Amino acid sequence: MLKKSISLILTLVLALGTFGVLPWQVSANAIESTGNSTLDAFINDSRWTNGVAWGASKMPNISPYQSWGCAAYCADYVKYCYNNNNPRSGEAFYSANETRAGDVITVGNPSDGNGHWFVVLRRSGNSLYVAEGSYAGRVRIGWNYTISGNGYTGTSYGFNTGYHYLADFDHKPYNVSLALEKYSFYPDEHVTYYCSATDVAYFIISIYDSVGNVVETVRINPGEYCTRYYNSGNYTAYCEAFNSAGVTFSNTISFKVYNRNQETNKPYDVSIDLEKYSFYSDEHVTYYCSGTDVEYFVISIYDGDGNIKETVRINPGEYCTRYYGPGNYNAFCEAYNSAGVTLSNTVKFEVRNRNQESDITDISTDITTDTSTDTKLTDTEKQTDTDKPTDSDSGTMGDVNGDGKVTMEDVVILQKYIAKLIDLTPEQFKLGDVDKNGEITMLDVTTMQKFIAKLIDKF
Prior knowledge:
The protein is α+β, with helices and mostly antiparallel strands. It has 7 helices and 26 strands.
């Protein structure tokens, strides 16, 4: 009887593990959101969630990093969330006060078995919401540690080294957007994704097919772009912008990949119209686009000084409603399909405050929409003497492709050059530098678009 009692006591002592907690004391409590979708996905995965068996001899599930127990858990975390193989691959730091969300922390001396690894999911003041493996043989997730001096209450080990994986922000990313160069492709043309945001650590782009299946997800860093090829079909994509404070979603974009034998003519009969052409600032302006053989429209709105206010993408049959402050405005739309783009007429309208004394109905007679055939711009339209761009020694300014006219094809060439997808010859560079400042920038692109839309008559 005494031997059995001693054996039972020894078994319980062994079960206490490093932290002196019995296995049944690690319960699968409800998991809190971290505010970061990638971290949330990791801790809610059945392989790493709270209470899952994870002993000292457990090796990683997905990471190739040779490790066991708590280190193996952190190795899987880094592989799952950041696609890195080494849990020490983050930015090293040596003060517990620098701890923040996303960190991997080592305490004690883990290399000789007298230490511990854990993941920081959130920080509130000095309290830490963490995930850790090999805690009494299981995964434990919760508010388990508090920063105290250069260490943590909740463990007898002193701080060793921490590794940052997320930037330190007190707010989520904002101004998040995803863009493509165009929205119609062939299978042998690359689709290039451009993500932008303020205060972002990294992006994850998700691409779906027409039935909602995930085609792929891609992680890129700020300033990078992602290029892919796809089979024919309809696709949608969006990006998530991450930092240590959380995640913000971008707009969703749709695009189509055509087989070469699906080629059609460019859109035609393209027009844009408004319900009226004079508004008060508390009245909405609704744009209506129409055309034949159109896949989608892009509406561009400029103020009276020719500065672009916004661009909006809509599908055929949709309309766009906006509010504006007082001023004069111009708008046109571009109609796209796989064969190219056709520009619409330009509409002009005015917005006034209600306290402006002039009768707004009188103004409407001066603001008209020119929907005649001559003002509908297409890539084959001939320019008149009054709207011909300046000639240079190399050719006509803006005519980058040398076809004798300035069209959206020239604009696309400059956009590709700015994105570092193609190179320009010295002659093309000179013709594309319409502001003549020695550089090809988005200012040149915008200036050419204004000229094509007849918002300006020369460069």
